[in-house]
Amino acid sequence: MSGFSPELIDYLEGKISFEEFERRREERKSREKDGESASAEENAEDVEAPSSSRKASGKSQSHDETDGETSDGVSKSVHRVFASMLGENEEEEEDEEEEEEEEEEEETTEQPTAGDVFVLEMVLNRETKKMMKEKRPRSKLPRALRGLMGEANIRFARGEREEAIVMCMEIIRQAPLAHEPFSTLAMIYEDQGDMEKSLQFELIAAHLNPSDTEEWVRLAEMSLEQDNIKQAVFCYTKALKYDPTNVRYLWERSSLYEQLGEHKMAMDGYRRILNLLSPSDGERFMQLARDMAKSYYEANDVTSAIEIIEEAFTKHQSLVSMEDVNIAAELYISSKQYDKALAVITDFAGIVLEKKVSEKSPAEEKKDTGPVVEARESQEAVTDNQSHPVAESSAAAVEKVSCCIPEGVPIDITVKLMVCLVHLNILEPLNPLLTTLVEQNPEEMGDLYLDVAEAFLDVGEYNSALPLLSSLVCSERYNLAVVWLRHAECLKALGHMERAAESYAKVVDLAPLHLDARISLSTLQQQLGRPEKALEALEPMYDPDTLAQDANAAQQELKLLLHRSTLLYSQGKMYGYIDTLLTMLAMLLKQFLLFSRVF
User: Fold this and answer.
1) Mean pLDDT over all residues of the chain?
2) Looking at per-residue confidence, does 364 or 416 come out higher?
3) What is the pLDDT of residue 373?
């Protein structure tokens, strides 16, 4: 293989991947091209200036060659194009006899007529347009080696594989840019059952004949059979270079990117698919947009998820389903855009918010019901009432907002509506909605209970949140530490210290390593006059082995010991206080020694 390029030898020996082989090959070709251009410039500078007589003769000769005309009024440059085209056609005839070639060469020297030139120009225009649409690859195998290539194929067909391999290698040595010998070698190794070697040569053949998109796709499938996902991605990328609007190729490559964990590359591919889909592919667009929004949400990229779902709602409003409304509302709520979430729910779920205005006077009460308005108008009205209180007078206007939910709206969307109303401080329509929620079984709908309860806690409506949290902690499925923690915080905010301490104790039982729960429990026990239980809540959380291996655990333990030492000092227990301080100092010393060893 002394005549082969270094990158080809490394690739065939398995030292580098095909991607690395192509990169090195392109770099080498670029260097060779730069070297050739530099040498050409040097040669041009070394040429001496011609004499005045030679300049004149050269100029007249150039003028005759470019602008000279024959007796029939046709320029010589057109004659040269015509002759070169006929000469090219001669070269493409492989099986011609020598006598026919000589006759055709003589015909090229004959002067064409004006009609022939006109026909030639029409043919040239037609061929140029065809070449712009499709570039047909031409073989780079020299005529002198075509016989040997045919002989190699015949040897392979007869079962003489070794001889065929030797012939192909010789052709590669003399014509390294021809793809035919690599294709034949791939078939030989495939016939021998060496699929890995066969794929190697197939990839080189495809690299030398890159415009065959179907071949790249076939190689991608072969790469997947060998569990080489990166190489399959590379093959699909090559296919897309010559067929960039092929949705199937984009889809397959994006799926492979997901398997490789390349989330951004996968999403970029799916975005290209969305841009390529026609308006008639609405269902396909919506399904892909849903999947992309979910994937972005799982990757904590809520902004991109919102952009995708908004684009889907804008382009295909008639195809928006309840699932889409639920996804959009969830995205807006997670980004705290409650007004937009409410707008989506009311626009696409058929839910109507109605504002009722009643005027009260000392003598009589008149009620006027206004028309149904949009969700945003209702929000603005409620906000205006809060920011501009009505002056005291004999008559006052009172606005009430009611909610009308049609049948068939899923409970998930109803709960998201409640969350939006709570955060937007539109509390009047919530009573009937809460009644509908508590009718659901907390064992099955506990996550919805928790969503509404946390919304109430966020705005300080602890009395409304407590019944929902109490239902959850009494259930079997949602008897969890996180729910008990929210229950304890709610009770503490309402001043129910005894019950709050019990809930915090439950959190510590379910999650012994929850530091904040331990500190809160200790504080409550101390306030309730139970110093021993307060100290008990701050007992060490980790064993010595864990502290020696886990730096994060050591940090947590130090925080707990700090609170414990403060509590011991406040209780006047100096022996325990000093003992805790010494324990903290020992831990800090160990961490310092460990840190010094590392550095």
Assistant:
1) 79
2) 416
3) 37
Q: Which amino acid is at 538?
A: L
When pLDDT is cut at 50, 70 and 90, the band that residue 200 belongs to is confident
Give the chain's end-to-end CA distance (angstroms, integer): 50
SS3 (DSSP) at 352 = strand
Q: Hey, which residues does 533 pair with through a beta bridge?
A: none
Structure tokens at 523: 């504080």
Residue carrying structure tokens 């206007």: 397
Tell the residue number behind the tokens 């073989």, with chain if given.
Answer: 139
d(CA 463, CA 493) in angstroms, rounded, equals: 10
Q: Cα separation of 405 and 351, whole Å? A: 5
> Is the Cβ–Cβ distance between 71 and 110 less than 8 Å?
no
Note the pLDDT of residue 335.
94
Asked whether residue 270 carries a pLDDT value surpassing 80, the answer given is yes
Closest to 260 measured CA to CA, from 287, 231, 288: 231
Bridge partners (DSSP) listed for residue 372: 354
DSSP codes, 167-187? HHHHHHHH-TT-SHHHHHHHH
β-sheet with 396-404: strand ranges across: 365-373, 352-360, 396-404
Higher-pLDDT residue of 75 and 30 is 30
Scan for tokens 């609007």, then name that residue: 245
DSSP letter assigned to residue 73: S
Between 536 and 2, the more confident residue is 536
Q: CA nearest 270: which of 298, 290, 243?
A: 290
Q: Give me the mean pLDDT over the 186-191 stretch.
A: 90
Please name which of 249, 337, 323, 256 lies closest in space to residue 290, comparing C-alpha atoms. Answer: 323
Distance of CA 248 to the CA centre of its chain: 17
Rounded CA-CA distance 522/483 in Å is 19
Task: Look at residue 543 in the predicted model and tell me its pLDDT.
Answer: 87
User: How many CB atoms neighbour CB 39 within 10 A?
Assistant: 10
Vertex 318 angle, CA 313 and 321, to 5°: 70
> How would DSSP label each residue in 417-481?
HHHHHHHTT--TTHHHHHHHHHTS-HHHHHHHHHHHHHHHHHTT-HHHHHHHHHHHHTSSTT--H
Place of tokens 């293989």: 1
Reported confidence tier of residue 7, pLDDT bands at 50, 70, 90: low
Measured CA distances, 188 to 182, 194, 208 (Å): 10, 9, 19
What's the CA gap between 464 and 457, in Å, rounded?
A: 9
3-state secondary structure 355-410: EEEEEECCCCEEEEEEEEECHHHHHHHHHHHHHCCCCCCCCEEEEEEEEECCCCCC
Of the chain, the percentage scoring pLDDT greater than 70 comes to: 72
Residue 357: beta bridge partners? 368, 399
CA distance 542 to 561: 12
Render pLDDT for 104-116 as a digit per residue (tens, 0 to 9): 444 444 455 666 6
For residue 319, the surrounding DSSP H or E stretch is none
Task: For residue 549, give every residue at least 6 positions away whose Cβ sits within 8 Å of its Cβ, in sequence order, or none.
Answer: none
Buried b (16+ CB within 10 A) or exposed e, 519-536: bbbbbbbbeeeebebbbe
pLDDT tens, position by position, 135-181 = 445 667 888 888 898 988 998 898 888 999 999 998 988 888 888 89
Q: Which of 400, 382, 379, 398 is nearest to 390 (CA)?
A: 398
